[in-house]
User: Which sequence fits this backbone?
């Protein structure tokens, strides 16, 4: 939880998969919605995590061309 608390504002809405490590998010002041991929659930209403997974897949391929980047210049890629 400390990593998440250091990166995301309290009260933020977080969409995740069903990994048990995320169980405490609600107790720490976050709105938490999860998808249970192991139960063949990938979307519920407007909640889904596949869009975020697609973004990171693209970002990793893009940044490999530049051998990575600093956090200050990430937004420009």
Assistant:
């Amino acid at each position: 939880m400390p990593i998440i608390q250091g990166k995301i504002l309290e009260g933020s809405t977080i969409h995740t998969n069903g990994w048990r490590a995320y169980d405490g998010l609600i107790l720490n002041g976050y709105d938490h919605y999860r998808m249970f991929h192991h139960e063949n659930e990938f979307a519920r209403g407007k909640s889904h995590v596949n869009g975020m997974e697609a973004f990171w897949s693209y970002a990793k391929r893009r940044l490999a061309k530049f051998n990575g980047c600093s956090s200050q210049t990430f937004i420009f890629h």
Remarks:
- The chain has a mean pLDDT of 81.
- Residues 2-76 form one domain.
